[in-house]
Specification:
With 774 residues, this protein is an alpha/beta fold. It contains 20 helices and 29 strands. Among the domains are: 192 residues, Flavodoxin domain (Rossmann fold, 3-Layer(aba) Sandwich), CATH 3.40.50.360; 135 residues, no CATH class; 172 residues, Nucleotide-binding domain of ferredoxin-NADP reductase (FNR) module (Rossmann fold), CATH 3.40.50.80.
Length: 774
């Protein structure tokens, strides 16, 4: 591609888990329909494939990870960009636009793209299109779709191309010159990831004014309307007679799925669950819409072109042990090689009547090259649940081929640009292995997946509903029934029984199954070859559209694997935790898991023990602080043994909270023990659901912060303590942040703006550290 090509611009992306990359690739795929020719690169390719110093027009899609940092793929680029030696006109020749991804559940919402924006301005670059800041907390598509829609005409104008000859190709008029943004707060390139394709390419602006339910989608030439033969009259969506013809044409298709659906339905109904949405008299449901959507014209996303072909090798037999783990592809954020660890104990820390079940697992890492510190994290490589894999194989009609070897090839003359075979699927694989170990079958369906499913759905009513769910007009229904319900591919296929996509199309769209990270809750000073971690067993109850109740992919798997060795935590007469005697336990096979290290260098104890620490960790957020306190206790013991009075230990405070003192007070006896030994100076607890018998008692950790605000702020502002927050980002971490702003304002007598600056300075000095998640 030559630099002088008409309509050429540089398209860059920085992605941690795949969201930003997928959106950039969507822009790349759609650009030719607008007469544009992007050159796309990952930010990690700086100075290898591109150089900003040689570019005149650039579009960037970038996410935020950690505590407002750039993703790993963008760190090198950012490091070079922020060099203080660069002159103020270094990028004066560059015109740019930024689409940032974030999550307002975290503080410093979209901090990384905002940092890029600020730095570009400092270096003289000019912004030709307002930045978009998409919020995963409400759905990235809310901002991504209109931002991309508005980009095309502005980008054409920037490149000196006329828009007058492109209206027939679906190019929109320029949007108002204001940043498209959501709420403020930090984020991460979130969890469900990879295959995005969000965008609708709007064909005509009067789409919703049409009286007939035309369905529109962009093509390379112009918009087209799906013929009346392929759409359902909205006035007869609930009329069985209207669909008799379509139903008659799919008898053979339904026969292979009806057994699965009915068996699942009977099982779930016996447990009081509903599997598939039924048409409701009031309001829309997953499988049924109501006016005005059911009577509206629809603007559909561009159909992603097919590019993978499955070729079965009937004469080739392979055992699962012969298949490379995710094709030997590298894992994001891995700081060590993948290695095997042995689960040596599993202790239930909650009573049976607790709302959530928490498990403490101990791993033997003797054979793992992991050298950890308290506060570090590691990842566990887990499979999808076998029951869901079996159901999906059955639903796809692939029972006979489930264990046959296949290989993936690119479709000859595919229209997908830059098509590649996923590196996380082994070159020779089986259906069962791919769906169990390689692909994430739980990820909520992206609109591009729904758009693909439309093409493989025979029933007219089901086809229309899938079109609505992926359309611009159906964005509210998509959010309510797909995104908020976290519906998986299995959920959708069960809800729409005439939809039968080929395996190759699914493998194109299902993202990679990613490892699950956990905070380490132990100290290597106790035993460098052992580590502990704690987690709640995540429960997903049945709901409209969700085919069955289920547990978290990794937490459910660990719970199932450790059932034979699980031990309820108990207390002896001295009030100490009594661990299970593993030597007396007879099990036929050791429980193994694959792990790798994820070093969290910012969430560690201060090197100088004379630095005060304040720890806030309700629920399982207490995990890294158990490691902190074990470490301090061992250090205290060593100092005492050596008689060294030159080493001073500053105060250590912990704020812990849970629902009930007697049901889910995690590590209670350990924490009380740390208070006795002096490893923990102050323990402040709160129980949100316990009766107070008329007394005023703190319900949440922020209540205890207010109760002890004078001492806390003295430690934080005067004695330079480090504040650590671990746990839920959506509620707890945000509430703690707001409480600190309130208390700082009262303590200093300053207004909200100045209090915000003080808190921002604490973050900048790394004295306000978070390890939080959604």
């Amino acid at each position: 591609m030559t630099k002088g090509m008409q309509g050429r611009f540089l398209l860059l992306y920085g992605s941690q888990t795949g969201q930003a990359k997928a959106i950039a690739e969507e822009i790349y795929e759609n650009a030719p329909h607008h007469g544009l020719q992007p050159e796309i690169h990952c930010l990690s390719m700086t100075d290898k494939k591109f150089s900003l110093e040689k570019e005149a027009c650039m579009v960037m899609v970038v996410s935020t990870t950690g505590d407002g940092e750039p993703p790993e793929t963008a760190t090198k680029f950012w490091r070079r960009l922020k060099k203080k030696t660069l002159p103020g006109d270094h990028l004066a020749h560059l015109n740019y636009a930024i689409l940032g991804l974030g999550d307002s559940n975290y503080n410093n919402f979209c901090r990384n793209p905002k940092n890029f924006e600020q730095r570009f301005e400092e270096l003289g670059a000019k912004q030709f299109y307002p930045s978009g800041f998409a919020d995963d907390a409400v759905g990235l598509e809310v901002v991504v779709e209109p931002w991309i829609d508005g980009l095309w005409p502005v980008l054409r104008k920037q490149l000196g191309l006329s828009n007058s000859d492109c209206t027939s190709n679906g190019v929109m008029e320029p949007t108002e010159n204001k940043a498209i943004t959501q709420s403020t707060g930090d984020d991460s390139d979130s969890g469900t990831d990879v295959d995005n394709p969000y965008g609708h390419r709007k064909s005509h602006q009067d789409a919703e004014k049409r009286t007939s339910p035309d369905v529109k989608t962009q093509t390379e030439v112009a918009t087209r309307t799906i013929s009346n033969d392929n759409r359902t009259n909205p006035t007869t969506l609930n009329n069985d007679t209207e669909n008799d013809k379509a139903d008659a044409n799919q008898t053979s298709t339904d026969s292979r799925t009806s057994s699965l659906t009915q068996d699942s339905l009977r099982t779930s109904q016996s447990e009081g669950e509903t599997v598939v949405d039924s048409t409701q008299d009031k309001g829309p449901s997953l499988t049924c819409s109501v006016p005005p959507l059911s009577e509206s014209g629809l603007t559909l996303p561009l159909l992603p072109p097919a590019y993978l072909e499955v070729q079965y090798h009937k004469d080739l037999v392979m055992s699962p042990d012969q298949l490379a783990l995710q094709g030997s592809a590298s894992y994001p954020s891995a700081q060590s090689a993948v290695s095997m660890a042995t689960i040596v104990s599993a202790t239930k820390l909650t009573r049976d009547d607790a709302v959530k079940t928490a498990l403490d697992l101990e791993l033997d890492i003797s054979d793992a090259p992991i050298d950890y510190q308290p506060g570090d994290a590691f990842s566990i490589i887990c499979p999808n649940p076998s029951t869901e894999v079996d159901l999906l194989i059955q639903r796809l009609g692939l029972i006979e081929q489930a264990d046959n070897v296949f290989s993936l090839q690119l479709i000859a003359n595919t229209k997908k640009r830059r098509a590649t075979i996923p590196d996380y699927i082994p070159k020779t694989c089986t259906v069962r292995h791919a769906l169990t170990h390689c692909c994430d079958i739980r990820t909520p369906m992206k609109k591009a997946v729904l758009r693909m499913l439309v093409e493989h759905t025979e029933n007219a009513r089901e086809k229309r509903r899938l079109q609505e769910l992926c359309s611009k007009q159906g964005i509210n229904d998509y959010g309510a029934f797909i995104r908020e319900g976290c519906l998986s591919i299995l959920d959708v296929l069960i809800a729409f029984p005439s939809c039968n996509p080929p395996l190759g199309r699914l493998l194109e769209h299902l993202p990679r199954l990613l490892p699950r990270p956990y905070s380490i809750s132990s100290s290597p000073l106790v035993d460098p070859k052992r580590l502990h971690f704690v987690f709640n067993i995540i429960e997903f109850p049945h709901s409209y559209g969700r085919a069955m109740a289920r547990q978290g992919v990794c937490t459910g798997w660990l719970n199932h694997k450790t059932q034979p060795i699980q031990q309820q935590v108990s207390t002896d007469v001295k009030g100490q935790d009594v661990e299970m005697n593993m030597a007396a336990l007879s099990i036929s096979e050791k429980i193994k898991v694959l792990i790798f290290a994820r070093t969290n260098t910012h969430f560690r104890l201060p090197e100088d023990p004379s630095t005060p620490i304040i720890m806030i960790g309700p629920g399982t957020g207490v995990a890294p602080f158990i490691g902190f306190l074990e470490h301090r206790e061992m250090q205290l013991n060593k100092v005492a043994e050596n008689g060294d009075d030159t080493i001073k230990f500053a105060p250590s405070w912990l704020f812990f909270g849970c629902r009930h003192k007697e049901r889910d007070f995690l590590y209670r006896h350990k924490l009380e023990h740390f208070v006795k030994t002096g490893a923990l100076s102050r323990l402040h607890v709160s129980f949100s659901r316990d009766a107070t018998n008329g007394t005023i008692a703190p319900k949440y950790v922020q209540d205890n912060l207010r109760l002890h605000s004078t001492d806390v702020l003295d430690l934080l502002l005067e004695k330079k303590a480090i504040l650590y927050v671990c746990g839920d980002a959506k509620n707890m971490a945000r509430n703690v942040n707001e409480t600190l702003l309130e208390l700082i304002g009262k303590h200093t007598g300053k207004g909200a703006y100045d209090a915000t600056l003080i808190l921002a300075k604490l973050r900048e000095e790394k004295r306000y550290r978070e390890d939080i998640w959604t």
